[in-house]
Amino acid sequence: MSTGPPKHAMQYFPNMINAMPSESAEFRRVLWTGLYSQVVLMTVPVGGDIGDEVHTVDQALTFTSGVGKATINGKDQDVKAGDLMVVPAGTQHQFVNTGPTPLILYTIYSPAEHDSRTVHKTKEEGDEEEEAGKDEAPKWSRQSQSENEKAGLVNTSGKY
């Protein structure tokens, strides 16, 4: 997996609402990191949770399998396959698997939240890497639009 800015090419992930997520057993796997967003696949085991947390980035989560409970800024909401939940930056959130099967989702962070090569087999592994500073978003994914334009990473003509 690349550690540099993304190439200007299509990234295609077929079967995101059925086959692909059910084949992943990792707690967290970064699928793609762009200049302004990041796609991450997550599997929350039966009885597990993602951890009560607050990010400095926006997050949109789409649930593909299982059932759970979302707590956003103190308000609870049941979630299931097919649901979308948006968590604005700076908002407390927690997702708990309340069902008999893994709770599987993909989330889009904007901008990136994790290292572009991140694969965490368990929540504990992810927590350890985050606490040790080993799971930081790439610097290039946190630059401003003007910085990316000056660096030649964004060209409004779409030709590179």
Outline, from the CA principal axes? globular
Number of helices: 3
As an assembly, this protein is single chain
Radius of gyration: 16 Å
| Low-confidence regions | none
Please describe the biggest sheet, giving its number of strands, its sense, and whether it closes into a barrel: 6 strands, antiparallel
Distance between the termini: 21 Å
Order of helices and strands: HEEEEEEEEEHH
Beta-strand proportion: 25-35%
Tally of strands: 9
Strand order of the largest sheet: 6-3-8-2-1-9
Please bin the fraction of helical residues. 10-25%
Mean pLDDT: 91
Structural class: mainly beta
Summarize the structure.
The protein has 160 residues and is mainly beta. It has helices spanning 19-23, 123-131, 145-150; strands at residues 28-33, 38-44, 58-65, 67-72, 75-80, 84-87, 93-97, 103-110, 119-120.
Note the main attributes of this structure:
globular, mainly beta, 3 helices, 3-stranded antiparallel sheet, 160 residues
What does the model show?
By secondary structure, the chain is mostly beta strands. The protein starts with 18 loop residues before the first helix and ends in a 10-residue tail after the last helix. The longest helix is centred in the C-terminal third of the chain and has 9 residues, at 123-131. The chain has 3 helices and 9 strands, in the order αβββββββββαα. 12% of the residues lie in helices and 32% in strands. A 6-stranded antiparallel β-sheet has the order 6-3-8-2-1-9. It has a 3-stranded antiparallel β-sheet with strand order 5-4-7, with no helix packed on it.
